[in-house]
Amino acid sequence: MRTLITGGAGFLGSNLCDRFLKEGHEVICMDNLITGNMDNIAHLIGHERFRYINHDVTEYIYVEGELDNILHFASPASPIDYLELPIQTLKVGSLGTHKALGLAKAKGARFLLASTSEVYGDPLIHPQPEEYFGNVSPIGPRGVYDEAKRFAEALVMAYHRYHGVETRIVRIFNTYGPRMRLDDGRVVPAFFSQALKGEPLTIFGDGSQTRSFCFVDDLIEGIYRLLNSDEPEPVNIGNPHEMTIKDFAQKVSELAGVELNVEPRPLPQDDPKVRQPDIAKALRLLGWEPRVPLEEGLKSTMAYFKKKLNL
Ligand code: UDP
Predict the structure, then answer these.
(1) Quick one: pLDDT at residue 180?
(2) Domain membership flag for residue 287
(3) Residue 281 within any structural domain of the chain
(4) Nearest CA to ligand 1 atom 14
(5) Whether residues 108 and 189 fall in one domain
(6) What does the alpha-carbon distance between residue 123 and residue 137 come to, in Å, rounded to a whole number?
(7) Domains contained in the chain, number
(8) Which of 272, 253, 273 minimizes the C-alpha distance to 263?
(9) Which helix (H) or strand (E) segment is 243 a member of?
(10) Which residues are catalytic?
(11) How many CB atoms neighbour CB 42 within 10 A?
(12) 119 and 50 in one domain?
């Protein structure tokens, strides 16, 4: 099996590179390192079944030889990143997905799109099942990511229906774990780096908004099973264990061994008030559900952050 992973030097992409190499695949990792980092794949350089190509997937993609799978994970993915890179975010979700699908069609490869719970926007249905169409502002600051991913899903379904490409769509909910960038602004690295440095935790708004956090190993297992299934329609992969951001701040402080100290910040525009995946479909089709308890996952993530911070 020969597998191309776009965004392969990112948090999820690099974890996928590891997994597919472990499964015996030849892995081609493509990234332009805008938000990805060579540190994430440094341990793979020199592996006989691994190759890294520096390329911006919004431009024509050339890969020689056959390809069995394309996993399209290239995109800025944290609210801070896509606020700073709005045009690149729109381009990689639209033009990048188009190029990657064109390659899948040309090679007869199976294609998997990394989509997101952001397609549900600030949801009015809770928890969110795949049938929910979402509540997204196209013109708000998050619109650049949300609409790019919604367009990407539409394009994937069109290539599936019109060109007969074998496609999969995973809707990824908040995921954390080793190789998350410390400075990507997301709540998990933000709170841990603040707590570990003895700084106050920046809670946005009153902290009553909820998220449901999935450990990366669980997510990767779900994606692997989805790729090997025959389901072309979107499947939620995430951990339904929901908590408020305030409670999450408390948990991080406990694990870091510090008193909870808060620095309130304004709630960003269009920040979803609740989020929890309905994973009934993943359980039914893939026999998948998350296994790693929050505390265990957070401990190993904290160990990674400590190392990165030289603590
Ligand atoms: N958040 C926070 N403090 C931070 C970073 C994030 O309170 O320093 C909140 C944010 O407003 C959101 C939640 O944590 O409600 C998760 O934010 P994140 O950026 O991780 O991802 P999102 O789920 O919003 O895409």
Answers:
(1) 98
(2) no
(3) no
(4) 187
(5) no
(6) 11
(7) 2
(8) 253
(9) strand 242-244
(10) 145
(11) 12
(12) yes
Q: State the Cα torsion 177-181-183-187 to the nearest 10°.
A: -30
Closest CA to 210 of 273, 295, 279, 146: 273
- pLDDT lower than 50: segments of the chain: none
Q: Which ligand 1 atom is the nearest neighbour of the CA of 118?
A: 25
> Helix, strand or coil for residue 74?
coil
The residue whose CA has the least distance to atom 5 of ligand 1 is 187
pLDDT tens figures, 269-310:
999 999 999 999 999 999 999 999 999 999 999 999 999 999
Number of Cβ within a 10 Å radius of residue 77: 24
Q: Which ligand 1 atom minimizes the distance to the CA of 203?
A: 7
pLDDT at residue 253, rounded to an integer: 98
Ligand 1 centroid from CA 180, angstroms: 14
CA 305 / ligand 1 centre spacing (Å) = 18
Whole-number percent of the chain with pLDDT over 90: 100
The CATH number of the domain holding residue 31 is 3.40.50.720
**pLDDT reported for residue 121:** 98
pLDDT, residue 146, reads 98
Residue with CA at minimum distance from ligand 1 atom 13: 187
Angstrom distance (rounded) from CA 166 to CA 232: 7
Verify whether ligand 1 is closer than 6 Å to residue 119 (CB atom).
Answer: no
Q: Does the C-beta of 211 come closer than 6 Å to ligand 1? A: yes
H or E stretch covering 97: helix 97-107
Residue 290 has which token pair?
């998350």
Of 186, 206, 301, best ligand 1 pocket probe by most atoms within 8 Å of the beta carbon: 186
| pLDDT tens readout for residues 183-192 | 999 999 999 9
Q: Do residues 106 and 62 touch, judged by C-beta distance below 8 A?
A: no
Ligand 1 and 245: CB distance under 6 A: yes
In DSSP terms, which residues pair with 215 in a beta bridge? 176
Ligand 1 pocket test: pick from 187, 196, 245, 260 the residue with the most ligand atoms within 8 Å of its Cβ.
187
